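USER: Study each token:
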Amino acid sequence: MDTLCGSGELGSKFWDSNLSVHTDNPDLTPCFQNSLLAWVPCIYLWVALPCYLLYLRYHGRGYIILSHLSRLKTVLGVLLWCVSWADLFYSFHGLVHGRAPAPVFFVTPLVVGITMLLATLLIQYERLQGVQSSGVLIIFWFLCVVCDIIPFRSKILSAKAEGEISDPFRFTTFYIHFALVLCALILACFREKPPFFSAKNVDPNPYPETSAGFLSRLFFLWFTKMAIYGYRHPLEEKDLWSLKEEDRSQMVVQQLLEAWRKQEKQTARHKAAAAPGKNASSEDEVLLGARPRPRKPSFLRALLATFGSSFLISACFKLIQDLLSFINPQLLSVLIRFISNPMAPSWWGFLVAGLMFLCSMMQSLILQQYYQCIFVTGLKFRTGIIGVIYRKALVITNSVKRASTVGEIVNLMSVDAQRFMDLAPFLNLLWSAPLQIILAIYFLWQNLGPSVLAGVALMVLLIPLNGAVAVKMRAFQVKQMKLKDSRIKLMSEILNGIKVLKLYAWEPSFLKQVEGIRQGELQLLRTAAYLHAISTFTWMCTPFLVTLITLWVYVYVDPNNVLDAEKAFVSVSLFDILRLPLNMLPQLISNLTQASVSLKRIQQFLTQDELDPQCVERKTISPGYAITIHSGTFTWAQDLPPTLHSLDIQVPKGALVAVVGPVGCGKSSLVSALLGEMEKLEGKVHMKGSVAYVPQQAWIQNCTLQENVLFGQALNPKRYQQALEACALLADLEMLPGGDQTEIGEKTRVLVTHGISFLPQTDFIIVLADGQVSEMGPYPALLQRNGSFANFLHNYAPDEDQHLEDSWIALEGAEDNEALLIEDTLSNHTDLTDSDPVTYAVQKQFMRQLSALSSDGEGQGQPAPRRRLGPSEKVRVTEAKADGVLTQKEKAEIGTVELSVFRDYAKAVGLCTTLAICLLYVGQSAAAIGANVWLSAWTNDAMVDNRQNNTSLRLGVYAALGILQGLLVMLSAMAMAAGGIQAARVLHQALLHNKIRSPQSFFDTTPSGRILNRFSKDIYIIDELLAPVILMLLNSFFNAISTLVVIVASTPLFTVVILPLAVLYTLVQRFYVATSRQLKRLESVSRSPIYSHFSETVTGASVIRAYNRSRDFEAISDTKVDANQKSCYPYIISNRWLSVGVEFVGNCVVLFAALFAVIGRSSLNPGLVGLSVSYSLQVTFALNWMIRMMSDLESNIVAVERVKEYSKTETEAPWVVEGSRPPKGWPPRGEVEFRNYSVRYRPGLDLVLRDLSLQVHGGEKVGIVGRTGAGKSSMTLCLFRILEAAKGEILIDGLNVADIGLHDLRSQLTIIPQDPILFSGTLRMNLDPFGRYSEEDIWQALELSHLHTFVSSQPAGLDFQCSEGGENLSVGQRQLVCLARALLRKSRILVLDEATAAIDLETDNLIQATIRTQFDTCTILTIAHRLNTIMDYTRVLVLDKGVVAEFDSPANLIAARGIFYGMARDAGLA
């Protein structure tokens, strides 16, 4: 370099240490200033350019219109280029005129000039690519200004010293250059307008980061507006920003799906290549070696392919941050040497303090960019996984669906996807931790020599111990996940069947089951928590033990080894750096183990069998036919025998076809086969056009009635009105509080009877028997044939010759664009097939007659009279009323989490435990400070005779204090583990007991997903997250306090800056906590709908597929996930915004600790400075972590708040009232009396029964009839006290039912409910959950309920496993199980609540016959659907709008020619 400057007019050396270092007034040589210093910005820009251009090429956002700002920037660039060229020409001018300028005067202006031209061109290229603020150029201009500051000072000092300006031209051009680069830097900080076609122009609330300036992005200043707004007003959903395009579910899921499909294709190719040739002999196989194991598609590879680039960027940030973290210990070393050397110039100390601050700030900013990148990637992980699981759940086969229940699949979404999100921040530690450990050991070697190997050896020895603990924890994790799955599955079933549990008084049995699973879960959690405490002890002690052993070896290996302040405290700061990767490793291992379990579960689910979309051919079909099946054989699962075989069916276009047959013959399976829901073993199925499908158990979404009817179609008012009229829904809509805007609860069921009275109106009948077609043809032909169909009709319908009054015509006009599949029952959301007037009239008539039987679960036996809609009625249908919402939207709590919530948790932990934990932490902090103060005193011993005495004493006390600290940490971790498990037990128990005792109205108005979320996500937080967060909060709080105590004790002057720093810290903390808490709450509230919608989707997947709405439902799910992400993204940014603010405070602590040490160096010894500054270097982490943990605690304690909220809801009356129990054998007669009885469903609603007064004598058989909403079901619910009286009373055998406990009442009544609900478990458990009856009793009940043959044919017998909801039994069989329950209980009063609504005639006949013989002495109340079942009853009660309209014997009522007569006449019975 000297040759560049050494000759000619400059005549300067490149470097002169006497001028630059060993002086009180430092400066750089002119050569250095004109060469390297001027080139630094240029080198930076040329190095950064290739990567930046590549980035811009692929991330263009559209061009920005040329603005005044852009013009001004360009002009400045051109002027700077001119100034550089002026310098160059001036040098040539000197050369021409005989002066010999140094080569540097040619090189530097040329390099700077070309660079300025490049910067100018870059300004315009960025504008064309839509860059509003250029980070690359801001850094470039900033470097230019910083590098010009030194010549700026030098030139003025030189001119003052010489009394004149030696080179006026270059002096002038330099200051012009300086002014221009300063202006360029200022202008670069202003951002351009958004690109011409940007989201800002259309989005009302765009994501501000996209248009934020570089500095705003660097310091996260763009979040400040939301932080202030969130502090002033509680944030609401409308305040949240829209998502960036690349972060939306649609984009993320699509990318991950493509990567997964690629994996599947590769696996398929691999399998095809690995498949052996057909003729390969066994000898060939031996020669060629064993076949490779079949390769499975790797979900991990798919994730890496999708998110790998984000990880690469984050890894670059992490690498820079890791390298920067090692600079401060070196600067501390320089600072201690400076303090030890009284002759050193003061500016050294100030420079070191400044560099420490600068280095810390750079470290902070880069670390926050890293976290931003990695957390966003984690969020994308979760989004992608949720989307992929959702899409898979829509296509899995029925056998897979039965193997993994709704609860388990929801867990994949809620817990396993979350685990991946939690793992993301730790993934870079896989390479970063080893790098930090290697660098720390290298620098420690430099400091302490080979003695550091003793410490390293200890670390290596501890790895197997921690590995063993991790393996053990992983085993517990797997077991705990299984238990958690089964608990959530059971809770899901309990919530779905809660009404049945209440009616049967079975809650204690299921409560015991849940508590049994929970006990096992807590036992595993407790063991894992204690293991975690032991591993915490080893990890806390590892850095200290490593320090101790290293120092011990260092002082004992060689008596001349003196432990001075520099060696001790630089080693301590390096060991502190070493502590972080060592502390994070157990967390990394734990998260990796959890994620590997989750990865296996997700991968296993994603590789499950899918329904074959090609099994039903929808494009081609024989002319004139709508449906054809050729030699079709179908099964529900590959390992099961075929359910349907050798089917040959052709259905003509426009025909109305009925499928009939006995229980279990395969009627429902045939419909499923047509929909492609079954696995086709052979044959061909053709079906032309779209499909409308009405499943056996109506699947109704938790949304408004109108949305359920439209099912995603746009509202066509005329067609919608026709549909409502055809379904006889208008009269019902008038009664609903919000018309068709009334929200329908999740558990609503709409069931319609199996009527054979419609068979004569069909064109075509298919008779099934044992999975095969036994007969097929039109109604008259089948009757004449006198086969099984004719026998079936004569057995079950002796009066079938009396047809309904309406005449029927065949559906000849139907177009071939839609098939209507009505499976066993009809619900009210069937699409109309077309708008052809003739066909429409016929269908309307057909639909009306079917749905008149029961349009929403309380029907009657007459067709609705035909009428036209009046104009006022049309308006009423779509006019929403304010109180029509059944399910209230989940509210987010607002404001500070109340102290009572913390108090509740502390009580749950145990007050003594809480106090003990705090005291243990105080002790631990005191021990830590003691150890370091002792070390400081030890280092000052070095001043006596250059030898240290008392080494053994010093080492012994230091060791004792360190080990004491570790023990106290372990004790506090164990105490917290014990307290946390205790709290988890208490809180879950309170929630469970309250929910089991909640009234039915609570479950009708609260989506099960919302309740299930309390039992899954919120309990998971209480189980596994709260205790560690509290531990870390206490840890960081006491660390921060310790640091301040040490710094103030060392440099009392520090107290001056404590107040302003504390004010700044508090301000940041208050803005942050208020905003982040509300964002966390919004996130919690927006999470539930994702899982509720998913549960609904899994349940109704067959309907969604039938209507070809999978894509729409995927979009709905994506929208719900995006709504959740809209609060997640700002929450992540709020943490970054906080960290920048808090770390600035922490870095100021470092700066002032170092500055005051420099200022007071005359009165301080090196040991104290080392202690003070090494502590200050830790404070940033402690302060940051403290607020984060405070916020995390507030965010997570919300789980306690939510669990407590659902633990304090109103409960039913007591199950048993000890002072008022009914006498043994009650009720002896079975008399039921209603006295002036009124009831409403919920407070604020109208009465559904008004002043009901009637008496039913013991042994009477009473049929209850009435139109929809007359109060039939309500009356039976009142008997069981599912609904409590508004006034009046019910007496059973003279005893007021309100005076006794619910279980004493319900256990003495028997009901066969409208929904035949079964629970997963054995058949025995489904009949007798308390184990009260003998095996003979159970078999007797099965015999009488006609299930004996079926159960005895099962290998497991009574231990036959029922799947969730009894899915592996037909509806008829499930209804017979309900009958068996009734037979077992055999109480004096039997209620049949629409029990015969959903079953076929054969089952119906069996049930009716059994009831007549087995319950002949009992009081029977039947809600009737077909009047012929109650014509022989003692009396019939006719209800109308909640009052008794008629009540007498059937003969008398017919003679009276009232309402009942009209019904009987319409049913052909009068």
Summary: The chain has 48 helices and 20 strands. Residues 278-290, 748-754, 798-819, 822-884 have pLDDT under 50 and may be disordered. The radius of gyration is 40 Å.
